[in-house]
Write a structure and sequence with these properties.
This protein is α/β, with parallel strands linked by helices. The protein contains six helices and eight strands. The protein has one domain: Dihydrofolate Reductase, subunit A. Pfam families: RibD_C. InterPro entries: DHFR-like_dom_sf (IPR024072), RibDG_C (IPR002734), Riboflavin_Biosynth_HTPR (IPR050765).
């Protein structure tokens, strides 16, 4: 399976609290729900079709619990095509603290996470998808486990909140393999990791 990620981010790189005002208040974050209603029908179709081609899903614990409480529990969301895709596919959670996952068909990955994910990637199938899960996405990038990443960039600057990419961290070059902008100014950018960047020499 190809390991892919999909993340909604603001222009200043924030990914925290995209869904609602109350879904992520960590560190006194007060500007949630910034992605609600953004994007046109084509963008929403693109997101839905992305979920539908997943063979399995991989989550960090925080995102897993949010998804389990919504896509995995609420009848209206379970009936949506995204909910159907999530509920019908195997789900994996990278967590050292989760002991009793409540969402059907969930496996908790413990121990050597890199080895466990490499084993999943070696299985036949389409995509092992990561949605949200910022800490996990950063770890996967640092360990060269991501094959493709999609950024859905919402035209807003928050000025606070957890960012997808930290202030300091490993460097990475990316090849842009697809890009589009919708009628509401939301951009979709699909990247493939391409080793380390080249820097100017003295």
């Amino acid at each position: 399976m190809k390991l892919t990620t999909m993340t909604q981010v603001t222009l200043d790189g924030v990914m925290q609290g995209n869904g609602s005002a109350s879904d992520d208040r960590r560190n006194r974050f007060q500007r949630g729900g910034w992605a609600l209603g953004k994007g046109d029908d084509e963008t929403r179709t693109f997101i839905t079709q992305t979920y539908q081609r997943a063979e399995a899903f991989l989550f960090g614990r925080h995102t897993y619990e949010q998804f389990a409480a919504s896509w995995g529990s609420l009848d209206q969301m379970r009936a949506h095509p995204i909910g159907v895709a999530l509920n019908n596919a195997p789900k994996y959670v990278a967590s050292t603290t989760l002991t009793t996952p409540r969402w059907r068909d969930t496996t908790v990955l413990r121990g050597d996470l890199a080895a466990a994910i490499s084993e999943l990637k070696a299985k036949p199938g389409n995509e092992l998808q990561v949605h949200g899960s910022g800490a996990l996405t950063r770890w996967l990038l640092a360990n060269d486990l991501i094959d493709e990443m999609t950024l859905i960039v919402i035209p807003v600057i928050l000025g606070q909140g957890a960012r997808l990419f930290p202030q300091t961290g490993p460097d990475l070059a990316l090849d842009l393999i697809d890009s589009r902008v919708d009628s509401k100014g939301v951009t979709i950018q699909v990247y493939r990791p391409a080793g380390r960047p080249r820097y100017a020499t003295a």
